[in-house]
Amino acid sequence: MNVVTPATQRKGRYDAGVMKYKEMGYFDLDYQPKDTDVLAVFRITPQDGVDAEEAAAAVAGESSTATWTVVWTDRLTACENYRAKAYRVDPVPGTPGQWFAYIAYDIELFEPDSIVNLSASIIGNVFGFKPLKALRLEDMRLPISYVKTFHGPATGIVVERERLDKFGRPLLGATVKPKLGLSGRNYGRVVYEALKGGLDFTKDDENINSQNFMHWRDRFLYCMEAVNRAQAMTGEVKGTYLNVSAGDMEQIYERAEFAKQLGSTIIMIDLVIGYSAIQSIAKWARRNDMILHLHRAGHSTYTRQKTHGVSFRVIAKWMRLAGVDHIHAGTVVGKLEGDPATTKGYYDICREQFNPMALQNGLFFDQDWGGMRKLMPVASGGIHAGQMHQLLHLLGEDCVLQFGGGTIGHPQGIAAGATANRVALEAMVLARNEGRDYLNEGPEILAAAAKSCAPLRQALEVWKDVTFDYASTDTPDFVPTMTPA
Length: 485
Ligand SMILES: O=C(COP(=O)(O)O)[C@H](O)[C@H](O)COP(=O)(O)O
Ligand SMILES: [Mg+2]
Description:
This protein is 38% helix and 15% strand. By secondary structure, the chain is an alpha/beta fold. It has two domains: 31-147, 2-Layer Sandwich (Alpha-Beta Plaits); 156-463, TIM Barrel. The chain has an eight-stranded parallel beta sheet. Strand 6, helix 8 (216-234) and strand 7 (239-243) form a beta-alpha-beta unit. Helix 7 runs parallel beside helix 16 (414-433), helix 16 packs across helix 17 and helix 16 (414-433) crosses helix 18. The chain starts with 21 loop residues before the first helix and ends in a 22-residue tail after the last helix. Bound molecules: ribulose-1,5-diphosphate (RUB) and magnesium ion. Magnesium ion binds next to loops.
């Protein structure tokens, strides 16, 4: 079964014609991945009648050096090293017709410090491959020797807290709503009210750039006026994520420069600007002492379905390398996809120095980050003050909790919405610090705090029945006690 003769030494290996990928040297169950190899695990769903091992070899081949036919020019290269090797193929537990294919890539296949180059290989061609019904990149192990070629977050969690002078609790934010249509002046009023009421941050929504109803300079000017006033009024450091996403890199830089000129501590980009743009603005942010917030706009088009696309855990790893400081990573309890076990995997990728393999959280490999700074996860999307105990329990302390509708939709106004969230959070952190079982006692803790806080009382009343209880789509395939075969 195992191929032991190096492919280049087999007779006929370089005869012109078509040969199985397995026979071309892209499959080797005896291969021991090197510490320096980039590893990937794909979920493959072969077409009926296609052998899973051949499908795995094809993915290895097409994501490294192969094409559909033998090419003699392989022999002009160190092709034995450059061929990726499928070294393990396991059936997906309880899911007939799907396999996890583990593939090792020599580090020399990848340009240092380039997500574009990494992704052009790993997800470049293979997703359209006809012998596969579907393909999903589940996880990657990035060797420390490769991690070290990236700068990672310039600010990270620890230094962000130092700059903001905020410790011991999650940070609080709000996405300005409605998403589109406000004039700059009215937008600035929302920012001021939310910050004055007790939030640390407000933010632009993913699709706020520079439309006719509000050009970007208007927004930046009114927002920074609001930030400065709120800081003066509260004595706290405040910020607003100014979205600098634009149609070209020149405009992104121009907007970022203006945000800096106005004294903003933070700017924002959308994932859809692309990997090169993200790495470029991350380097700009490093040079300019600017916190960089990433909204993962667009990710669900390819991360959510289990048989297709790229898991968000891979995107989170790439973004930590790329050097953003914040990343949207899910809420579990809110309006958008977020299985608790899967989401824990994302948060661990952002916040740990070392991720041990944790199949129950979707982490297929150990991942060493060296000293790379930590990425602040941002929980956002359909959350409100009544869920504070669950949010603190599920997501921990080092995160931003962002309530858009859950601030601006408050019946007594935006500042009251912000106050409700701040009081709910502080009450919950106090209960945690006192050693209380705050998860189970959460509703009582909130009710007690609401006795002396009318805004919290009103928030709990208006949103008391709001939950988003739907089955998760992106769930792990392993229960805690299971290891792969
Ligand atoms: O506008 C919102 C949330 O608004 P609201 O708080 O009113 O629901 C964000 O775009 C989503 O959170 C993104 O989702 P994710 O954070 O999962 O990427
Ligand atoms: Mg949004």
